[in-house]
Each structure stands twice: as structure tokens, then as C-alpha cells.
């Protein structure tokens, strides 16, 4: 919920800034109409950057991998004792 409020407040601030630029004619009209496109492209680049940083900093969990392999071996043993053929996987 906090992210929704943050995004909506950012959209409201950018919209207010855009309307102000349209009314004040500080920036030429042809550039002002492109601001929403620049905003969407910048938001997309920011999203890709955050995903990339999240992937680079993704923690590895060797303890969890060992526990998962143990659970898999236990499940295979349980299934084979109950007569279910699981093959060589």
C-alpha cells in the first residue's frame, strides 16, 4: 500500500509540474507535450535498474540448498517405499 501512495504522489507531482509548464510557457509547447513520454521512459529505465540491482544482490543460501536436497532425498525414499516409481530423477 505504501508503494501505491508513493507512486500516486509522484504522478500527481509530475502532473502538476507538467501543467505548470504548459500554463507558464517557460518551455516551448512542442517540448512540453513530450514530457509524459520522457517520464514513462525514465520510469521504465528506473524499473529495469532496480531489477538489475536486485538480481546482482540476490543472496545465495547454501544452507537452504542442503536442506532442500535432504528433503528431496527423503521424499524419494518415502515414495519408493510406498511402491511409486520415480525413475532416475
Automatic annotation (TrEMBL):
Entry keyword Zinc-finger: no
Pathway annotation from the record: Protein modification; protein glycosylation
Record-level GO cellular component terms: dolichol-phosphate-mannose synthase complex; endoplasmic reticulum membrane
UniProt xrefs under InterPro entries: DPM3
Annotated GO biological process: GPI anchor biosynthetic process
Broad class of where this protein is predominantly found: endoplasmic reticulum
Domain of life, source organism: Eukaryota
Residues that span the membrane, as ranges: 34-55
Function: Stabilizer subunit of the dolichol-phosphate mannose (DPM) synthase complex; tethers catalytic subunit to the ER.
Record note on quaternary structure: Component of the dolichol-phosphate mannose (DPM) synthase complex.
Protein name (Swiss-Prot/TrEMBL): Dolichol-phosphate mannosyltransferase subunit 3
Native source species: Brassica carinata
Amino acid at each position: 500500500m505504501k508503494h501505491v501512495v508513493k507512486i500516486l504522489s509522484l504522478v500527481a507531482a509530475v502532473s502538476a509540474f507538467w501543467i505548470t509548464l504548459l500554463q507558464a510557457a517557460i518551455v516551448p509547447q512542442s517540448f512540453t507535450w513530450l514530457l509524459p513520454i520522457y517520464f514513462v521512459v525514465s520510469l521504465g529505465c528506473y524499473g529495469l535498474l532496480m531489477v538489475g540491482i536486485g538480481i546482482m544482490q540476490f543472496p545465495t543460501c547454501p544452507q537452504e540448498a542442503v536442506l532442500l536436497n535432504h528433503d528431496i532425498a527423503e521424499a524419494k525414499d518415502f515414495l519408493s517405499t510406498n511402491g511409486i516409481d520415480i525413475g532416475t530423477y
